[in-house]
Design goal:
Layout (H helix, E strand, L loop, with lengths): L1 H20 L1 E7 L3 E9 L19 E10 L3 E2 L2 E2 L2 H19 L5 E6 L5 E10 L7 H9 L10 E13 L2 E4 L9 E12 H13 L3 E7 H9 L2 H6 L1 E6 L4 E7 L2 E8 L3 H12 L3 H11 L12 E5 L5 H4 E5 H25 L9 E5 L8 H9 L3 E3 L18 H11 L20 H11 L1
Parallel strand pairs: 1-6, 6-11, 12-17, 17-18
Antiparallel strand pairs: 1-2, 2-3, 4-5, 7-10, 8-9, 8-10, 12-13, 13-14, 15-16
Helix pairs in contact: 2-4, 5-12, 7-8, 7-10, 10-11
């Protein structure tokens, strides 16, 4: 655990150094698309003291460079071909730097794979009627023991989601208050160590210093959900090409995250196999004519399937839109069924509010909101990322939710375990249901 702590502390220091220097790159390593934004920070607005919370350290920033390219060497949000992924990252970073006319030496990266798993843990110390200080917060975080996550996994996020001082619970920042017993509830997100090491190595090969790592499910929820949804309780479903990320927020903090290894690329592959057409043409047909809710006129709406095989009859075929819907709907239903199973396992139905926000590039299929409402049994809406200064209009859709959320993560980081001077690292193992039960009893 000590090596994870030191690595995260080093990345935090590099992030602060990059912000003080004024320029940092954010990189969204998706399965279908790689996106890079160059952010310029106003160094005069950097805070001197951070608080504990989702908007602890606020800083003004502006997007001065943006670029996207087709992701290569990525599968299920993980690197499958190192050289191809390196080439894609170099291409998108150089294009963004050319637009910004400045070089970025530090990058903050988000990814969607690595089989994330959530753990709810607690810690407790005695402050003997004294004023709670910074060292007391570090001590109560250090009083937690590491759960048995396995030697092949590492902790990506370690966020305190609640503090309690004696019988007063629901404190976001206990510093400066007087009490006897200080307790905390913390959410840990563990991922596969090998996936993280591959990302570290790939970014280093691209002549960049890694200044931060984040889960795509987490940052997508930050940008696609409004403040009230994050406080009252809601789930963000980030439907990407290779994976579908799930994150649950309550009281402004993420309390659960998971990933379904199915996404929009699987729908495209089904269309390609079902109609016998190339993947590029299948993606185009899905984007222009796809849907999930059949109507009476879909049988009469014909879609041409143009090809270049040399067979005139094969290249001039037509299908009805109802046939296309019949191919797409079963795969989307499979994704939503897996999402519903993960939400049930997390105890989502026990939260005071059960809103669901759909985002991601694969969430733009017509009829998805209505289908998700019926299958998930909750109120569902399509979420778009927040508007940030300098962001191109073309990047305002749901497909860029994780990228925009990564910008907010870079500028407004929530305090984590790594931000405190902790001498010992012990996190007691607790089940996620215990954390959910605490939120339900103390809301």
């Amino acid at each position: 655990m000590m090596d994870v702590f030191e690595t995260q502390r080093a990345m935090r220091q590099m992030r602060k150094a990059a912000m003080q220097r004024g320029v940092v790159a954010v990189l969204d390593m998706g399965t279908h698309q790689a996106t890079c934004l160059i952010l310029r920070f106003d160094g005069g607005d950097l805070p001197t003291v951070d608080g504990v919370g989702p908007m602890a350290g606020q800083s003004q920033f502006r997007v001065i460079g943006a670029a996207t390219t087709r992701a290569r060497g990525m599968r299920h949000g993980e690197i499958s071909a190192m050289q191809e992924t390196e080439r894609a990252i170099r291409t998108v970073v150089q294009a963004a730097q050319k637009m910004a006319q400045v070089r970025a030496d530090h990058a903050i990266v988000c990814f969607s794979g690595a089989n994330p798993r959530s753990y709810g843990v607690t810690g407790e110390i005695d402050v003997t009627g004294q004023e709670v200080s910074e060292s007391d917060v570090a001590a109560v975080l250090g009083s937690c023991d590491t759960p048995d996550i396995g030697g092949h996994r590492t902790i990506l996020h370690a966020q305190p989601v609640n503090f309690a001082l004696d019988y007063r619970s629901g404190l976001s920042d206990p510093r400066g208050q007087i009490g006897n017993t200080l307790t905390t509830d913390m959410h840990l997100l563990a991922v596969d160590r090998a996936v993280v090491q591959n990302i570290l190595h790939c970014v280093k090969r691209c002549d960049l210093e890694l200044a931060g790592l984040a889960s795509s499910a987490y940052v997508a929820g930050i940008s696609a959900m409004v403040e009230d949804e994050q406080k009252l309780g809601a789930a963000c479903i980030d439907m990407g090409a290779g994976t579908t990320g799930i994150s649950i927020f309550l009281r402004g903090h993420m309390i659960f995250a998971d990933t379904v290894r199915i996404g929009g690329a699987h729908v495209t592959r089904d269309i390609s196999k079902g109609l016998g057409i190339p993947l590029d043409l299948a993606e185009r047909i899905k984007t222009l004519h796809g849907g999930l809710e059949a109507t009476g006129r879909d049988d009469r709406e014909m879609i041409p399937l143009t090809g270049e095989t040399g067979d005139w009859e094969h290249d001039r075929r037509e299908i009805s839109r109802s046939e296309l819907i019949g191919i797409m709907r079963p795969r989307v239903e499979e994704i939503l069924e897996d999402v519903h199973a993960r939400l049930e396992a997390a105890g989502f139905d026990h939260l005071p509010s059960q809103k669901i926000v759909l985002t991601g590039g694969a969430s733009q299929v017509p009829g998805l909101s209505a289908l998700a409402t019926r299958m998930l049994g909750q109120q569902v809406r399509l979420g778009r990322p927040l508007r940030i200064q300098g962001m191109p209009q073309a990047a305002a859709g749901p497909g860029f939710a994780a990228t925009v959320g990564l910008c907010l993560f870079a500028a407004h980081p929530q305090d984590e375990c790594w931000d405190f001077d902790i001498e010992t690292h012990r996190y007691p193992a607790r089940s996620l249901r215990r954390a959910v039960r605490w939120f339900r009893d103390n809301w």
